[in-house]
Design brief:
By secondary structure, the chain is an alpha/beta fold. It is 39% helix and 22% strand. It has 16 helices and 23 strands. The protein binds nicotinamide-adenine-dinucleotide. It comes from Thalassomonas viridans.
Length: 483
């Protein structure tokens, strides 16, 4: 059986302590993961600090850009291995992994390799009170050693969304991927090795969050922490890093709404809400969990949404037309099922789903769950307030614009929203009043890597994407010259 190992100072390292890597399609153990220990974290940090002042630290921006393009080229050459590894860890459909996860992982390196070449600074000619002049200008420096902690839902895509800009800006990186999905991170370490990224520049630390993740964020020698994951973990990390006052970037959970206005194109809205609720089994931070439908459309919309949800094909990742695979793990399956039970206890009507599909084959030992639509709950119900992160939405009726804006904003989260309407002025008006970082109108998850990405309230701190990422991963240093 394969053993997945950490990558430290240019070597794969085994700690001698292991836990199982499980395939969520059928519960089989597919690999053993060697969990890093404290000494290994220390070695990774020491090697990264040394690399900052070695050949890596002396590369020009253009040379770093060329190297990052080589990383992308090699990832593209090994694309099938990345696809197979991501499917084995997550059970996602081949279609999704092939069209989103892996190509976007590669694209992140290409994008930031190019973007960093155009990173500018600021400059001001300053008049002193005595009538003299000074020139102020800023230069960008790397932060130093950046700890990258990433989740399991889009493993390669979200890890590279941080690793690529951090390296582009000249930092050294220590990546800790989710313990559920370490395989593509190991392939990425192999790629770094193969294309000649100097040792110590990219390190990979494998292990569980509460064991290894916590040690990494509190270890001396880490200059910044960038984290994508649950809001509760974000709170924990914020407390851990407070002692050493370092930059943090947080992309956290969401409780995202879709609003279907009276002037929506109902075909587009049904298809859009199906996609935004059930893509990746609802395990995307941007997924819709609350749907507000104008009273004039409520009954036909709900009926059509139910039909479409019941037509979703659930199955093996490589099966034709499969839209939903399993959830990522048994633990997560139990968490989502607990919310299905809670919904019933809170008085919800289950429009469709609400349980576990039965296949009468090895998938019955996996982590599958039915796409589920609920209705009948108030906005204060826990099911309408807490992030479930599964293939489920609650559909409510509304009457007017001000009401729906107030209800959509009634959540501790503030990540994303989708608005469905053909009424242009209404779309602009409402989009600006929703307390979230990202609003889509008549679409969902349409991404431009230059656009600011992130959330407000419990959904995060800071923005990623384009120049926002470069701003986080570099430190502007102002130089003032008297002239
Ligand atoms: P999680 O918080 O459990 O784990 C994320 C990462 O943090 C993993 O690598 C984990 O090992 C590590 N970790 C756990 N405890 C830690 C600790 N105490 N110290 C340091 N590291 C620790 O999240 P998850 O279950 O992997 O991912 C799902 C969550 O991520 C959802 O809440 C989802 O909304 C959120 N998410 C947000 C975005 C976004 O861009 N806003 C994107 C994807 C996922």
């Amino acid at each position: 059986m394969d053993i997945l190992q950490s990558y430290i100072n240019g070597e794969f390292v085994d700690s001698g302590e292991y836990f199982d890597n499980i395939n969520p399609v059928n519960g089989e153990v597919i690999a053993s993961i060697s969990e890093a220990n404290e000494a290994m974290i220390g070695q990774a940090i020491a090697s990264a600090r040394e690399a900052l002042s070695g050949p890596w630290g002396r590369l020009s921006v253009n040379e770093r850009s060329v190297l990052l393009h080589k990383v992308a080229d090699r990832m593209a050459e090994r694309e099938q291995e990345f696809i197979d590894a991501e499917i084995a860890d997550t059970g996602k459909s081949l279609f999704q992994v092939k069209t989103i996860d892996i190509p976007r992982g590669t694209a992140n390196f290409r994008f930031f390799a190019d973007q960093v070449k155009y990173q500018g600074g600021e400059s001001f000619v300053t008049q002193t009170p005595g009538g003299e002049k000074a020139l102020n200008y800023s230069v960008n420096k790397p932060l130093g050693v950046v700890a990258v902690i990433s989740p399991w839902n889009l493993p390669l895509l979200l890890a590279t969304w941080k690793v690529a800009p951090a390296l582009a800006c000249g930092n050294c990186v220590i990546l800790k991927p989710s313990e559920e999905t370490s395989s593509t991170a190991v392939l990425l370490a192999q790629v770094m090795d193969e294309v000649g990224v100097p040792k110590g520049v990219f390190n990979l630390i494998l292990g569980r969050g509460k064991v290894v993740g916590d040690k990494l964020t509190t270890a001396p020698g880490i200059d910044a922490v960038t984290f994508t994951g649950a809001s509760a973990t974000g709170k924990q990390i914020m407390k851990s890093v407070a002692e050493t006052v370092k930059p943090i970037s947080f992309e956290l959970g969401g409780k995202n709404a879709a609003i279907v206005f009276a002037k929506a194109d109902i075909d587009k809205a049904v298809a859009g809400v199906i996609r935004s609720t059930f893509t990746n089994c609802g395990q995307v931070c941007l997924c819709t969990e609350k749907v507000y439908v104008h009273r004039s459309l409520f009954t036909p919309f709900l009926e059509r949404l139910k039909q479409a949800a019941e037509n979703i094909k659930i199955g093996y990742p490589l099966e034709q037309d499969v839209f939903m695979g399993p959830l990522v793990s048994k633990v997560h399956q139990q968490k989502v099922l607990a919310y299905y039970r809670l919904a019933r206890e809170e008085g919800a009507e289950v429009v469709t789903g609400g349980g576990v599909p039965v296949f009468n084959d090895d998938r019955d030992s996996g982590c599958f769950i039915e796409p589920t639509i609920l209705t009948g709950l108030g906005d204060e119900a826990r099911v309408n307030q807490e992030e479930i992160f599964g293939p489920v939405c609650h559909v409510s009726v509304f009457d007017d614009e001000e009401e729906v804006i107030r209800r959509v904003n009634n959540t501790p989260y503030g990540l994303a929203a989708a608005i469905w309407t053909e009424h242009l002025a209404q779309a602009h008006r409402v989009a600006a009043k929703i307390d979230v970082g990202l609003v889509w109108v008549n679409t969902w998850f349409l991404r431009d890597l230059r656009a600011p990405f992130g959330g407000v309230k419990l959904s995060g701190i800071g923005r990623e994407g384009g120049e926002h990422s470069l701003a986080f991963y570099s430190e502007p240093s102002n130089i003032c010259i008297k002239i």
